[in-house]
Structure formats: C-alpha cells, structure tokens
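Can't paste images in this forum, so I'm doing it all in text. The chain is below; anyone willing to post the predicted structure tokens underneath?
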Amino acid sequence: MAHHPETDVLHRGEGARPEASPLTTPIYATSTFVFDSAEDLEAYQEGRSDKYIYTRYANPTVQAVEEKLAMLERGEAAIVTSSGMAATATALFGLLSAGDEVVCSAAIYGGTLQVITRYLSRFGVTPRLASLDGLASPERILTPKTRVVWCESPINPTLRCVDIRKVAEACRAHGAISIVDNTFASPVNQQPLTLGVDLVMHSATKYLNGHSDVTAGALVGGREIIERLHPARKLFGGVLEPMSAYALGRGMKTVFLRVERQNANAMYLAEQLSEDARVASVHYPGLPSHPDHAIAARQMSGFGGMLTIDVKGGYPAACQVFNRLQVIKRAASLGGTESLCSQPVLTSQYGLSDEELDAAGVTRGMLRLSIGIEHRDDLLADLQQALG
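Text version of the structure:
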C-alpha cells in the first residue's frame, strides 16, 4: 500500500530489525508501544504476552539496566527510578501501612530522614530513630509493630558502619523487612543481599552512573519484594526515562574500574590526612582507628571513595578550607570521576539543630570528600594548600 511522504517519514523503520544485533543497549525513546489487534492487547492485560504498553510501566532500555543492576547486587530483580529519593519513597510507601512502625538510624541521609519523620507519620506510620548503639543490638529495639528497618552503611557523612548481617538476622526473626542504602559502598565494595538483607536501595546518580550526568535511583532484592513494589513505582510515576537509563547502563560498565581507583585514592588520602596536625579527625572505615573498622573489614571488599575530615577551628576553618580548594570541586552529590567537597551542615544536614547534629555525629567543622580518579598526589597537594 502506497503512503504519502509525510506518513512514510513518521513510520518507516520504526519496527525492530531481526537482522540487527546491537553491541550496546538500544534506546527505546518512546512513551507508548503499538499493538496489532484487540486480541493482542487483551493477551497483554491478562499476562499472556511479553509486550510493552507504556514506558511508565516498563521499557526495554530500562529493563536492560535493571537486569544488569540485579546481577551486580546479587539480587533476583531490580527497579530503577527517576532519583534516589524516588526509590526511597517507592520502597517506604509501597511497603508500609497505617499502624506500622519503621525503625531507622538517626544518622542517615537527611532526605530519607525527612520522608520518614515528616511524611510517613502523616499517614499513621510511626517512626522510631535508633542510635548506632541500638542498631548494634537490633533485636532489643524491634517491636511487634516494626515492619521496616532502614539503615545506611557506611553512613552519610560520618562513615560509621552498621553490622548488616546482624540487622538482617534480627529483622528476619521479628518478621520485619530490612532495607540498606548501599549508595556509599556501591555493589563493588559491598553486597548487602548476600548478608541477608531483603532490599537494597541506591542513589544511582552516584557510583553506579559515575559521571555526574544522570539522576536516578534503584531498588534491588528478591523477585517477590520487587514485584510488590512495581505498582508503587508505576502509580507514583517515579520511573526512569529511557535516555537516562541508557546513560546509567553505560556508566555501570566501568563501575569496577572507577571504584577500585577511588578506593585506593581515598585510602591514601585518609592515611596522609590522619597525620596532619591541622585536621582534628579523619573518618574513613579503612583506617584501623575508625570505630567500625572491624565491621567494615568483615562486610566490605573495599572501603569506598568517601572520606570525611573534621578541620581544627570548627565551622570558620572548614569554610576557609572549602573556599581554597582548586582541584577538588565545591559541589554536592558524590561518586563521580571528579573529586568533590561539600559541607554537611550546608547540604545534607542543613537546618538541623545542635542536638540533631550531635545525634547524627555531625560537627560544623566537617568536610565531606567524594574522591575521584585524579592522581592521588594532585589531590593531596590541593588539600594541603587548602588547609593553609
């Protein structure tokens, strides 16, 4: 059947070509998908078809990334979202109901803390904040109403670590779901699912993408719990669009190379700065002096690229060091190839009272460093000149 040129230009070549075997994941830049007939659509709705209907529900590019991520985290399935906070909200609102209790560490990312304390409580979910000492004996702090336990390890920005296996075992004994934010460690350094955790969350913006050009989130776990969360992702609309999913998948190809270099750079800088008289303390789980070094050594294969220092002189001195940096960039976020520095009291812990900062283990003199893949001596020289 002959078509007018304006029709051909819209439809020519839109179908899949069986003779094409792409090396990389194609970008399915489409919001909707075509069905051949009413019977074809009916088969989809009844679960008798592997076709796609709408990108908010599923998309081949997005699913390819989810399969790769599940493999990295040693999980059965994964879903990716439009941001780390979208993943957090999808998990919490998808798993909790009125009357439930969620236990989380007081020392977690500020955005997650706000979702739990300011929003979930509006819908009848009771938040309970646990200290690190409490999480060290999790069986003592869980109640019959506890449905979810959320923790980070290493924790932002103090780099304290939680015994993940112990938390997972306590949750299983109490019938609660354990969720670990694995953003700081990355799957290269730590796989919480192998330690018994039910669900892993990532801000995929960070190490998984690794190039500071995508905003994304992810949830990884067993097939049953991920299927349980699919409706929440679909209905809340926090899906990752195909272009960003492609970029995320491309970044994940080099995650081992990047993270191994970042691990080495961070360890070197931590050792050097721990001997610098201008630095009050260095927070890095790879140092034997770190309070949770033994825990980190048991559950991590590398100690990560995140490093926090407490500058002598408090907030004014930290601001001076921050302002003097030249190689290390002043920016929020983390996990990219470029080294970044942020001040926790001006970013993730901004607006917290002194009491809240103390509970989180955060001081006003802290600088959080996301170590990149630059030459380690250039990074050390930059920090030394910035310290004055």
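The two ends are 77 Å apart (CA to CA). The mean pLDDT is 94.
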